[in-house]
Design goal:
Elements: H1 2-8, E1 14-17, E2 26-29, H2 39-42, E3 47-50, H3 62-84, E4 92-98, H4 126-143, E5 151-157, E6 159-161, H5 168-177, E7 190-191, E8 193-195, H6 196-207, E9 214-218, E10 224-225, H7 226-237, H8 247-256, H9 262-265, H10 273-277, H11 287-302
Parallel strand pairs: 1-2, 3-4, 4-5, 5-9, 6-8
Antiparallel strand pairs: 7-10
Length: about 300
C-alpha cells in the first residue's frame, strides 16, 4: 500500500521482503534476521519505514509465538546495526508498533499521554498478555538504541482498512456478505481502525514534521463499539442481517480458522492524541464515512 503510493508520487522506492515478487519498484530479498548486500542500497536514503513482522492472524502456539516476537525484534535490531554502518543514514525512521500495546479499555480512550499500557491485567487471557509483551519488546528494541541524526517514530497502528484483497477489511466484508457479520458478543468492546488514505497521510505527515518523534497512535479519532462497527458495515454492504457470535462459539470458530479471538474480543479504544495536537486532520474520521467509501472501492476492484 505504501510502496504503491510513494512510487506513484514519483519517489524512488526500495522494498526489502522475504518474498520477492515482480513489482514496479525495486524489491530485494531479506530474511529479516541478518544484514545483506542490500545495505549499500540504503545509503543516502531519506526515509525508512519498517513494517516487518509475522502475521498475528494465526494460533498463538509456541512456534508461532516465537516467530511473531523474533520477526519484529530481530528485524528492528538488524536495522539498528545497519544504520551505524551507513555514511549517510536516513533523516527519519518509522518503525511499526501496535495499538494493542494499551490495556483492554471499555471505560475511556487511550492516547499517548494518558493511555495505560497493558500487561498482566486481572482476568486477561494469556494470548492478550502475550501480544502486549511483544509490543513492549518491539518498542524496546527500537528505542533502546539512539540514532544520532535519525529521528525515530513508532507507529502504534490500529487495523488499517483498504479494499486490497486479503486485507483485514476483506476478511470482515466476507463475513458480512455471507450473513456472519453480526455482533461479536458482548459487542461493547471497542474497535480502533484507520482508513488506508489516512494511514498514508499520517505517514507523510510524520515524515514532514521533524519535531515529532517517539510513539504515535495511528488510528481514527473515533473508535466505536463492535456492535456499531458491524452494523454500519452491514448497512454499507446492503446486508440485511448478521448472525451474532457468542464468545464460546467465537472461540471454536477462531480455532477452526487457526486464528485468535483476541483480534475481535479485546477492546482497543485508541485515539490519536499527538496527531490531533500537531494539527493533523482526518479525511475519514468516522466509520460512517469510511465504510461506504471502502465498500464502493471494493466493488470497483471486483469488476
Amino acid at each position: 500500500m505504501l510502496a504503491r503510493h510513494f512510487h506513484n508520487e514519483g519517489n524512488q522506492v526500495l522494498v526489502l521482503s522475504r518474498h520477492v515478487q515482480k513489482t514496479p519498484w525495486l524489491t530485494l530479498h531479506w530474511d529479516g534476521e541478518t544484514l545483506g548486500p542490500w545495505l549499500a542500497d540504503l545509503d543516502d536514503s531519506d526515509v525508512w519505514i519498517n513494517l516487518a513482522g509475522r502475521s498475528v492472524n494465526c494460533r498463538y502456539n509456541r512456534k508461532n509465538r516465537r516467530e511473531i516476537l523474533d520477526s519484529r525484534v530481530l528485524s528492528t535490531s538488524v536495522l539498528h546495526e545497519a544504520i551505524t554502518r551507513l555514511e549517510s543514514p536516513p533523516e527519519v525512521w518509522l518503525n511499526a508498533s501496535t495499538a494493542t500495546i494499551y490495556r483492554h479499555a471499555l471505560d475511556r480512550s487511550m492516547d499517548e499521554a494518558s493511555g495505560e499500557l497493558g500487561g498482566n491485567e486481572p482476568g486477561a487471557p494469556d494470548t492478550w498478555n502475550f501480544s502486549i509483551e511483544v509490543a513492549r519488546a518491539w518498542e524496546e528494541a527500537f528505542f533502546s538504541i539512539k540514532t544520532p541524526g535519525t529521528r525515530q517514530v513508532a507507529l502504534r497502528s490500529a487495523m488499517t482498512f483498504s479494499p486490497d484483497r486479503g486485507g483485514v477489511f476483506d476478511v470482515f466484508s466476507k463475513l458480512v456478505r455471507h450473513g456472519l457479520g453480526g455482533t461479536n458478543l458482548p459487542g461493547t468492546q471497542f474497535v480502533s481502525w484507520i482508513h488506508e488514505v489516512d494511514f498514508i497521510r499520517t505517514v507523510e505527515f510524520l515524515i514532514g514534521n521533524p519535531a515529532i518523534s517517539g510513539p504515535i497512535n495511528a488510528a481514527s479519532p473515533h473508535p466505536l463499539p463492535n456492535s456499531q462497527f458491524l452494523r454500519i458495515l452491514r448497512k454499507a454492504w446492503g446486508a440485511r442481517f448478521g448472525v451474532p457470535t457468542l464468545p464460546w462459539l467465537l472461540e471454536i470458530g477462531t480455532f477452526l480458522l487457526r486464528t485468535e479471538s483476541e483480534l475481535v474480543l479485546k477492546s482497543r479504544r485508541v485515539v490519536p492524541g499527538r496527531l490531533l495536537d500537531a494539527g493533523f486532520t482526518f479525511r475519514y474520521p468516522t466509520w460512517h464515512q469510511a465504510a461506504p467509501d471502502l465498500v464502493a472501492r471494493s466493488r470497483r476492484y471486483a469488476l
